Write a sequence for this structure.
């Protein structure tokens, strides 16, 4: 998991330094999506010996006063609370311009519990950038006679990596031909423990479509994904368009 994400999760009430322009972008996002919105208030700078004012930003809709303060902006610095940073993560997402960006998108989507968006980003990265990305496979299936159930198979993971970024998807989520390729040709790797925190706000499929285009996402999902809600979504849309014409 992203070390910065983990740090912010473990220190949710801490105010982390942030560039003012990034702070404003995140506050605008919170103002749109959080009930009650964000309000700004002026007060004297709380640092000893500093004769100036500072702006504090609070979430008005929260019931606990101690949780309302989300950011402080001073003449020489700006700081955003760790939990507010997690909540506003989609506001910090750049437009994906390559495989590495799509992998980052997938990981941030997972951090917010948006696994469908993560699977769509995985499919797009694999579909458009293979073979320039690295592919690997970890298998944790218990040795037993197959029964037809796939529960354990969700611990068998296909990985893609570009640069320093990597993400994975359960093998049963892939189309049969794609899963076979990973099983037959991808480098094997040791399984690692997964204990992901998903309390953040993750980007959605709509965010991915807005960034790169719905046609690209749908084409990749249909080519790469198998037993997955994302493929079912685009397959049903394609069927409806074939019958009724594009919406």
């Amino acid at each position: 998991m992203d070390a910065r994400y983990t740090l912010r999760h473990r220190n949710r009430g801490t105010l982390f330094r942030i560039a003012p322009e990034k702070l404003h972008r995140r506050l605008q996002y919170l103002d749109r999506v959080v009930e009650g919105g964000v309000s700004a208030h002026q007060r004297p700078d709380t640092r000893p010996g500093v004769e100036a004012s500072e702006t504090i930003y609070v979430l008005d809709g929260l019931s606990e006063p101690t949780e309302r303060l989300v950011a402080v902006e001073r003449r020489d610095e700006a700081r955003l609370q760790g939990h507010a940073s997690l909540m506003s993560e989609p506001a910090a997402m750049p437009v994906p311009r390559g495989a590495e960006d799509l992998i980052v998108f997938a990981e941030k989507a997972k951090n917010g519990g948006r696994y469908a968006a993560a699977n769509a980003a995985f499919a797009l990265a694999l579909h458009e950038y293979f073979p320039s990305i690295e592919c690997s496979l970890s298998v944790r299936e218990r040795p037993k006679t197959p029964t037809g159930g796939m529960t354990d198979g969700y611990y068998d993971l296909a990985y893609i990596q570009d640069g320093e970024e990597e993400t994975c998807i359960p093998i049963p989520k892939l189309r049969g031909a794609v899963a076979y390729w990973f099983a037959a040709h991808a480098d094997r790797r040791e399984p690692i423990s997964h204990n992901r925190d998903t309390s953040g706000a993750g980007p959605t499929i709509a965010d991915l479509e807005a960034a790169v285009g719905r046609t690209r996402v749908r084409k990749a999902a249909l080519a790469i994904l198998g037993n997955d809600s994302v493929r079912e979504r685009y397959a049903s849309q394609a069927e409806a368009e074939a019958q009724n014409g594009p919406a």
